[in-house]
Automatic annotation (TrEMBL), chain A:
Organism: Halalkaliarchaeum desulfuricum
Domain of life, source organism: Archaea
Matching InterPro entries: CRISPR-assoc_prot_Csc1
Pfam families, sorted: Cas_Csc1
Protein name: CRISPR-associated protein Csc1/Cas5
UniProtKB/TrEMBL annotation, chain B:
InterPro entries (UniProt xref): CRISPR-assoc_prot_Cas7/Csc2 (IPR017574)
Protein name per the record: CRISPR-associated protein Csc2/Cas7
Domain of life: Archaea
Pfam families: Csc2
Length: 235, 331
């Protein structure tokens, strides 16, 4: 079987609010598959939101035969960061500046200035697209070459490579992140997790059972549990 | 009027006004712009320093890098949005009993063409807790030349008129981008109607102030180099900028011997640069096999003329009914 390995290279700043520390919003160098399904066009969001509840499960109901892994930094490369201050001033010619004590808007969560630490251009991140249904060729045709990601829709380029993979069974170690809800069985040992929102990541773990081993030529093999499903335990 | 029947060329990358749907589809309009500074400009994120990136380039002696100054995407969005709101006020798009729409974070009307196209978050009105995703996407722009030649620190002293001075810090040395700095830039529109394309083209053609202190600085000439429509996005500004530098280097008429000569040049010719940016974009479409086609120059000029004219209010008024219908689908 063939698996698609995608290298995502940021082309400007890409911002996610992985963590908010006061007025600083920080971006972790991981892109969750909750974002990738939409960015790749496998699921569609909505332009107008009135419910304020995520609809990942509904939106991906028809693509459960394709698994997109979260994206993680390419080994040997450090993410490129840029920190910026934003200041959202209004466009009126004259406006009242209230003191902090009398600000009528003080109780509302309306930050007009703050800082963002974003991934800067040319940060390479890697993810895999594993299909149980459509062939790798067909999927490759469907994937765009440029995607928009994150809070401010930063631009990124996708380079896709075909990799051959084999299904095996036995003991194996997961060595590329998956979403914690994407596989029902918890790992047996050597677990490394990362708390992320909205879904935590399993970065590493030992499992027993069926797995997919992806041959990456000279590089390390990547092993994933077989039959991963996006948000499997939430369906 | 501006719709798919009057301009069938726009059809591959736009939706017709009564087919606006809440779910994203693959209709893209790429507006290729060369932003050229006509006065000094301040683009900073901390009030003092310009943002600078390090970008790898291919040169005749192997890989090298240069340090372009940045025009972040929000420096472009913010100014264009404010201009769009002002344009709507000029065209009397708001009824007398309506509150005018502003850029105040929680006081956007969410009802005008601008709010619905550029997106807005929940307003302060009770019960109207809608948030709208922007269908206009910008991309960080990189200067063609190195920061060491396009940026200059200028000494500012605001001493006041008193003879006896108190000890106050009134001296600063912010970074100024020099006039003549050019930023190749693409504005991407997704699932928009032809009238909305015209709105963005009109804003791009007329808006001339970007960055800080725009009452004195930040004059920009936006050259609209082309409009490309299709089912996907075109190359990013970063690639476009790199490729434009390579083309300047290869340009025999200007005779730059090395890539360093280009990025360190005292000045670059704007119209040659415009040609290089256009051909870089078009060649990238071919090389990467992107599904994009150019809209003819006459059509673009025609639309820009309507969008900057007095009768544009009619177009926006008609679009507004469709935009509202689009919004109503969410309820």
């Amino acid at each position: 079987m063939d698996v698609l390995e995608a290298t995502l290279r940021t082309r400007g700043e890409v911002t996610f609010t992985s963590r908010e520390v006061g007025r600083l919003a920080d971006t972790e160098p991981y892109i969750l598959n909750t974002a990738l399904y939409y960015a790749l066009g496998l699921a569609s969001g909505r332009y107008v939101d009135t419910s304020y509840e995520p609809t990942y499960v509904e939106d991906t109901a028809e693509v459960t035969d394709v698994y997109v892994s979260p994206a993680a930094p390419v080994s040997g490369s450090a993410p490129n960061y840029v920190t910026t201050t934003y200041n959202a001033t209004s466009d009126e010619y004259a406006e009242v500046n209230y003191s902090a004590q009398d600000d009528p808007n003080a109780k509302q969560n309306l930050p007009s200035y703050g800082r963002r630490r974003s991934l800067a251009h040319s940060t390479p991140l890697r993810f895999f697209v594993i299909s149980r249904g459509p062939s790798a060729d067909k999927l490759d045709d469907r994937l765009p070459q440029y995607v928009r990601l994150g809070k401010k829709r930063g631009k990124a380029r996708l380079d896709i490579q075909r990799r051959s993979a084999t299904r095996k069974s036995g003991q194996f170690r997961l060595n590329h992140p998956i979403g914690a809800y994407d596989y029902p069985t918890p790992p047996e040992g050597n677990v490394v997790t990362k708390s992320m929102k909205p879904t935590p990541l399993v970065l590493q773990g030992d499992y027993t059972g069926k797995y997919v081993s992806i041959d990456r030529e000279d590089d390390d093999r990547v092993r994933f549990p077989a039959d991963l499903t996006f948000l499997a335990t939430k369906r | 009027m501006i719709d798919q029947n009057t301009y069938p060329e726009l059809e591959p990358g736009t939706v017709s006004a009564d087919e606006m749907t809440l779910r994203p589809r693959s209709n893209f309009v790429n507006i290729l712009v060369l932003r050229e500074l006509e006065s000094h400009a301040i683009f900073t994120t901390n009030g003092e320093d310009a943002d600078i990136a390090t970008v790898a380039l291919k040169s005749e002696d192997g890989p090298m890098d240069y340090a372009p100054g940045l025009m972040f995407m929000r420096k472009q969005t913010g100014s264009d949005r404010r201009f769009g709101k002002a344009l709507q006020r000029d065209l009397d798009l708001f009824d007398e009993d309506e509150d005018e729409c502003t850029m105040q974070v929680n006081e956007m009307c969410q009802d005008c063409v601008e709010c619905i196209l550029y997106g807005s978050a929940a307003s302060s009105d009770e019960g109207s807790d809608v948030s709208i995703t922007s269908r206009v996407m910008y991309d960080t722009a990189y200067s063609l030349r190195d920061a060491s030649v396009v940026i200059d620190e200028k000494f500012q002293n605001a001493p006041g008129g008193d003879y006896a001075k108190s000890a106050e810090a009134t001296i600063r040395e912010p970074d100024f981008f020099e006039p003549g700095t050019m930023f190749p830039s693409v504005i991407t529109l997704r699932d928009v109607t032809p009238a909305e394309v015209a709105f963005v083209l009109g804003i791009t053609a007329k808006n001339k102030r970007y960055g800080a202190a725009t009452s004195r600085l930040g004059r920009v000439n936006n050259r609209i180099l082309g409009v490309y429509v299709g089912s996907e996005e075109g190359p990013a500004n970063l690639e476009l900028t790199r490729e434009t530098i390579a083309r300047h280097r290869a340009d025999e008429e200007t005779g730059y011997e090395t890539t360093i000569d280009v990025v360190m040049a005292e000045a670059l010719d704007p119209s040659r640069t415009a040609d290089h940016v256009s051909s870089a974009f078009e060649d990238a479409i071919d090389a990467q096999g992107l599904d994009l086609q150019a809209v003819s120059e006459e059509t673009v000029d025609d639309i820009v003329e309507i969008a900057t004219g007095d009768d544009f209010a009619d177009v926006l008024n008609e679009q507004r009914d469709h935009s509202r219908a689009f919004l109503d689908q969410a309820e």
